[in-house]
Amino acid sequence: xxxxxxxxxxxxxxxxxxxxxxxxxxxxxxxxxxxxxxxxxxxxxxxxxxxxxxxxxxxxxxxxxxxxxxxxxxxxxxxxxxxxxxxxxxxxxxxxxxxxxxxxxxxxxxxxxxxxxxxxxxxxxxxxxxxxxxxxxxxxxxxxxxxxxxxxxxxxxxxxxxxxxxxxxxxxxxxxxxxxxxxxxxxxxxxxxxxxxxxxxxxxxxxxxxxxxxxx
Length: 216
Known about the structure:
Blueprint: E1 2-4, H1 11-20, H2 28-47, E2 52-59, E3 62-69, E4 74-78, H3 83-92, E5 97-101, E6 104-107, E7 113-116, E8 120-121, E9 128-133, E10 136-137, H4 141-152, E11 156-167, H5 168-177, E12 182-189, E13 191-192, E14 198-199, H6 205-210
Parallel strand pairs: 1-12, 4-5, 4-9, 9-11, 10-11, 11-12
Antiparallel strand pairs: 2-3, 5-8, 6-7, 13-14
Helix pairs in contact: 1-2, 2-3
């Protein structure tokens, strides 16, 4: 299942427009905050479909029966670009466990690249809802590999993928590998550049959020 928030009028569309804008992109703090806000709203939407249970809460005036999440999710992200969206999800799922992966594009001299994944820190995930955040779902290769690594750690009950912008090819690649996944994205673009970047996209989310890097 794919949720595309650009198909409906919401604040997410406003924040995506600012993420794309070359003038607004000059403000790194605003860029990161927009990623956080998109993730916060999507996190709220995901929570509507999660299992709840009734608990009795003691107030100063008596007892109140309240619905709370039955189980906390595992929030996973891909360093470093995913950190801002991860923080947004964590601000809503503030009791969640967290997983971090280091998947990145390792560029070759001929312009091609491979997905390198050299590190993962993951809590127990058997029977857990896992929410993976990454701002850009381009080719889908890094997310597929990241999810494979997470699955090696245990049996995922439910998989959600949260991104700001997704490419049609990336969605197809991910759903082919993970047909039961639910994808939540602020917008969907149809094209990729020869180097695998989303068009029109917004550029390199990691660089825009945290500064330029040396290519490896």
